[in-house]
Amino acid sequence: MEDFEGNSAYAYYSSFFVGPEADGYRLQVSGFTEGDAGDALSVHNGHMFSTFNKDQDGSQVNCARLYLGAFWYGDCHNTNPNGVYSWGAEGSIHGVGVEWSDWKGYNYSLKSISMKIRPVQ
């Protein structure tokens, strides 16, 4: 991931699995082992994928609508890589940007986040 000041960070997980449609595309992620971005993804482990029109999160509200994204929200999020793309620090709308809270907090929208997934050997 990269911020608008040219800094980059990463988080490495040893296991990442998305379940079938019948189980709501449930996320199974574990094994955060390193990375200067911190572990903002593990809290999403075990949650189903939620969208504006398919609320499958564990919250009383529709997190996808509230935070303008789609993700494996639980009681909303610690990371929101599918959030609204804006330009860096944004204090006016909490939590809607492209975020990785353990690195930049909830009021900073990142320039980019990418996930690199490879098959288990």
UniProtKB/TrEMBL annotation:
Signal peptide: none
InterPro entries found in the cross-reference section: Fibrinogen-like_C, Fibrinogen_a/b/g_C_1, Fibrinogen_a/b/g_C_dom, Fibrinogen_C-term_domain
SUPFAM superfamilies reported in the protein's UniProt record: Fibrinogen C-terminal domain-like
A GO biological-process term: elastic fiber assembly
Domain Fibrinogen C-terminal: residue ranges: 1-121
GO cellular component terms, A-Z: extracellular space
Protein name: Fibrinogen C-terminal domain-containing protein
Organism: Oryzias javanicus (Javanese ricefish)
Taxonomy of the source species: Eukaryota, Metazoa, Chordata, Craniata, Vertebrata
